[in-house]
Design goal:
Strand order of the largest sheet: 3-2-1-4-6-5
CATH topology of the largest domain: Nucleotidyltransferase, domain 5
Number of helices: 15
Radius of gyration: 21 Å
Distance between the termini: 18 Å
Structural class: alpha/beta
Largest sheet: 6 strands, mixed
Order of helices and strands: EEEHEEHHEHHHEEEHHHHHEHHHEH
Strand content: 15-25%
CATH superfamily of the largest domain: ATPase, nucleotide binding domain
Bound molecules: adenosine-5'-diphosphate
Number of domains: 2
CATH class of the largest domain: Alpha Beta
Shape: globular
Length: about 375
C-alpha cells in the first residue's frame, strides 16, 4: 500500500488523482492552460494549482506520506514496454519519441519536468499508453508497406488506451472467473479502441501508429482507405494540416451528423433524424466488424467487455453492436443491459458480455507502486 499522485498532463489541461491503496482521496483538473482567464499560464503554474488544491484538501504535495508520482505518458514506442522509473535517461528517451506523438509527449514531459522539480526526492514513474500492446505479434503490428521505409521512420502499429485495456481486461476476466481467459475489450469514449487479450496479454488492438486507426470515434474517422488521404490532397487541394484536422477533429460521429456526443446522437435518432441514424449505424457496424475479427484472432472468447463513457452508459450501442450474433454464442439480456449490470449476457451464455467501468488513474497508481516495490527489492 502507498499513496500515489497520478498526473495526466495534456497540452491544455492537467488531470490529477491522489490514490491511497485502492481509494481515491482527491481528484481534479486544471483546464485551459495558457488561455486568457485560466488559473494557469503554463504547466508550472498548473501543477502549482494542483498542489494548492491538494493542500486545501489536507493532502499536500509536500506530504512525507506521498510514496510516488505516476505520470501518464502517451507514446512509449518500442523503447518502453513496461511502466518505468523516471531518470534523466528515461526523460531523454521519451523526448526521442516526440516525433511519434508530437501533441502528447511534450505535454507529458512538461508535467514530469515540473513534478520532478517540485519533489526531487520522490520516485516518479512513467506509465505508457502503448505499453500494454507491446505484446502484439509482428503479424499484428506490421503494416504491409516497404520495410526499409517503415523501419527508418518507426512506422508500425503501437496501440493506445493501454492502461484502460489492461485494467478492464483483467477485471472482466476475473468477473467471469476466467483469469487466464480470452477477452475482447471495447473501450468506447470520445476516443474508441478495441483489443483482444489472451491470458492477460494483448494480442490485437485497433489503434495503430496513431490513435486515428480503427473504430469510429467522436471526431476521428477510424479506418479509412489510405488513398483517400492522397485524393484529398491531389484532387481536393487540401494541405497535410487540413487533412489532419479533417480526419482527427471533423470526422467520426461529428463529421457524419454534427454531434460527437453519443447522448445527443441517440436523442436525434429517437426523433427520426436521418443523419444521426446513418452515423449510429456506421458506428455500430464498425464495432461489430471488430468483434467478429477479434473473435477469429482469439479462436474462442470468454468475455466481451464494454467500457468508456459510451460503453458503460449506452444500452443501445451495446445491444445494436452485438445483435444477431447468437450463432457465435454471443447474446445480450435486454433487462440486464438496460440496467447496465456487470454481466449483461443471459445465464448460460457461452460468451459472457460485461460492463466494466474503466479506471485508468487507479491502474496507473497500481503500476506505479509495482515499479517502486520492484525497484526497492533490487
Ligand atoms: P474520454 O474518451 O474523453 O475519456 P469518456 O470515456 O468519458 O471520454 O466518454 C465520453 C463520451 O461518453 C461522451 O462524449 C458521450 O458520447 C458518451 N456518454 C456519456 N454518457 C452517455 C450516456 N448516458 N449514453 C450514451 N453515451 C454517453
Amino acid at each position: 500500500m502507498g499513496r500515489v499522485l497520478v498526473l495526466n498532463t495534456g497540452s491544455s489541461s492537467v488531470k490529477y488523482r491522489l490514490v491511497d491503496g485502492d481509494r481515491r482521496r482527491a481528484s481534479g483538473m486544471v483546464e485551459r492552460i495558457g488561455e486568457p482567464g485560466s488559473a494557469a499560464a503554463g504547466h508550472e503554474e498548473a501543477l502549482k494549482v494542483v498542489a494548492a488544491e491538494l493542500a486545501a484538501g489536507g493532502f499536500g504535495l509536500d506530504s512525507p506520506e506521498l510514496t510516488a508520482i505516476g505520470h501518464r505518458v502517451v507514446h512509449g514506442g518500442t523503447t518502453f514496454t513496461e511502466p518505468t522509473l523516471i531518470t534523466e535517461e528515461v526523460v531523454r528517451k521519451i523526448e526521442e519519441l516526440v516525433p511519434l506523438a508530437p501533441l502528447h509527449n511534450p505535454a507529458n514531459l512538461a508535467g514530469i519536468e515540473v513534478a520532478r522539480r517540485l519533489r526531487p526526492d520522490l520516485p516518479q514513474v512513467a506509465v505508457f499508453d502503448t505499453a500494454f500492446h507491446a505484446t502484439i505479434s509482428p503479424a499484428a503490428a506490421t503494416y504491409a508497406i516497404d520495410r526499409e521505409t517503415a523501419e527508418r521512420l518507426r512506422i508500425r502499429r503501437y496501440g493506445f488506451h493501454g492502461t484502460s485495456h489492461a485494467y478492464v481486461s483483467r477485471e472482466a476476466a476475473l468477473a467471469v472467473g476466467r483469469p487466464l481467459g480470452n477477452v475482447i475489450v471495447l473501450h468506447l469514449g470520445n476516443g474508441a479502441s478495441a483489443s483482444a487479450v489472451s491470458a492477460g496479454r494483448c494480442v490485437e488492438t485497433s489503434m495503430g501508429m496513431t490513435p486515428l486507426e480503427g473504430l469510429v470515434m467522436g471526431t476521428r474517422s477510424g479506418d479509412l482507405d489510405p488513398a483517400v488521404v492522397l485524393y484529398l490532397g491531389r484532387t481536393g487541394g487540401m494541405s497535410l494540416d487540413e487533412i489532419d484536422t479533417l480526419l482527427n477533429r471533423r470526422s467520426g460521429m461529428f463529421g457524419l451528423c454534427g454531434d460527437n456526443d453519443m447522448r445527443a446522437v441517440q436523442e436525434r435518432l429517437a426523433a427520426g433524424d436521418a443523419d444521426a441514424e446513418l452515423a449510429f449505424s456506421v458506428y455500430c457496424h464498425r464495432l461489430r466488424k471488430y468483434v467478429g475479427a477479434y473473435y477469429a484472432v482469439l479462436g474462442t472468447v470468454d468475455v466481451i467487455a464494454f467500457t468508456g463513457g459510451v460503453g458503460e452508459n449506452s444500452p443501445l450501442v451495446r445491444r445494436t453492436a452485438l445483435a444477431g450474433l447468437e450463432a457465435l454464442g454471443i447474446a445480450v439480456d435486454p433487462a440486464r443491459n438496460e440496467r447496465g449490470e456487470r454481466l449483461i449476457s443471459p445465464d448460460g451464455s457461452v460468451v459472457k458480455v460485461a460492463v466494466i467501468p474503466t479506471d485508468e488513474e487507479l491502474e496507473i497508481a497500481q503500476q506505479t507502486l509495482a515499479v517502486i516495490s520492484r525497484t526497492n527489492r533490487q
